[in-house]
Amino acid sequence: MTLVFLQNMGFGSLVFILLFLLPYFLLWLYCLVDVIRSKFKNENMRLIWIIILLFVQFIGPILYLILGTNSKLST
Question: Which residue ranges make up each domain of the chain?
Fold first, then answer.
């Protein structure tokens, strides 16, 4: 069984997905797992970061990598 949308995609769309969307998804997944596993100074920050990652998807992981490391406990 083949997916219909894959048959109608041009080569440029496939390259776009492989070069940009797949690495971005992996970055988003890494940040989400890191938030879930980490201990924060304030436990509410975990919930805040999860909400940011889920609802502000385009800049959420970048914000977490820049600002989120300051709110984690260093153990």
Answer: 23-75
Q: Which residues contact 64 (CB under 8 A, 6 or more apart)?
A: 31, 34, 35, 49, 52, 53
Q: Which residue type is seen at 14?
A: L
Q: CA quadruple 55, 57, 59, 61: dihedral positive or negative?
A: positive
Kindly report the pTM of this predicted structure.
Answer: 0.74
pLDDT per position as a tens digit, 14-46:
777 778 888 899 999 999 999 999 888 888 999
Q: What is the enclosing helix (H) or strand (E) of 73?
A: none
Contact 52, 64 (CB under 8 A): yes
Distance of alpha carbon 53 from alpha carbon 6, whole angstroms: 28
Name the token pair of 28. Answer: 């988003």
How is residue 29 written in tokens? 């997944």
